[in-house]
Amino acid sequence: MPKRKCIFTDALKEEYTFLKLCERVGNDGKIECISCGAIFSIDHGGKSDIKQHIGTKRHKLAEESSKIKKFNAFFGNKRFVAADKLVYKNEGTWAYHVCKHNQSFSSMDCTSGLLRKMYDSKFTCGATKTQAIIVNVLFPYAINLIKNQLDAASFVTVMIDSSNHKDLKIIPVLVRYFLPETGIKTVIIEFADLPGETAVQLTNYVCELLKTWKIEKKIIALSADNTNTNFGGVLRRGKNNLFTHLNGNVENYIIGIGCSAHILKNAIQI
Questions:
Q1: Which residue in 3, 45, 39 sits closest to 19, CA to CA?
Q2: Considering the entire predicted model, what is its pTM?
Q3: What is the rounded distance in angstroms from the CA atom of residue 154 to the CA atom of residue 257?
Q4: What are the tens digits of pLDDT across the range 258-269?
């Protein structure tokens, strides 16, 4: 007569709390060790199989590891007091100052040390931390703020220019809009390096930005330099230019606004 199969009884569950019935496919009836992850059967030996598992090298190593204080325990769930919050606000303010005035991140390695000696010994906002604050906190906030403002705006003017920086062709794109609560706003929405400056390349570039920011139905004017690529000459009769192509890709008719600096210069010369 075959020996009766042993099962994982409630008494065994209470005695060996680190064991449980395995729920993985193909291991029905087997036992899983929470400590070391091993899966084994107690069908034949019952409690003796459990003791045999406890004596294995794998389980002993797992038990020793569980006794070591975990890395996170050294930090715990820190609760910030008012003084800590003030330090973080100051660090965020200085990160914004660096960004606003176009200063180098590395300059904060020096500035942070001075501020720590002169004012607050807890102030630690070097180059790495400053970059992290700008990239992960200030930048997402600014993008979200601009998106909300553009959603609220009824009409926008797109402004574009180009500048050579060594071997780079930098094409910044700005938008100008009006909000009742803040007045006229002008912000940069892109600052990219393009491989060229043809009318088609600029049109694709601007149209993609209009769709990304969801303002393709709100654009009413284009402000750019008075070049053939942008407007097709002084009389604007050309067809292969940004102004003409853009008018063919949006619903509203776009008003062409030349460079105000050039208009003022020409007026003075006259």
A1: 39
A2: 0.60
A3: 19
A4: 877 766 777 787
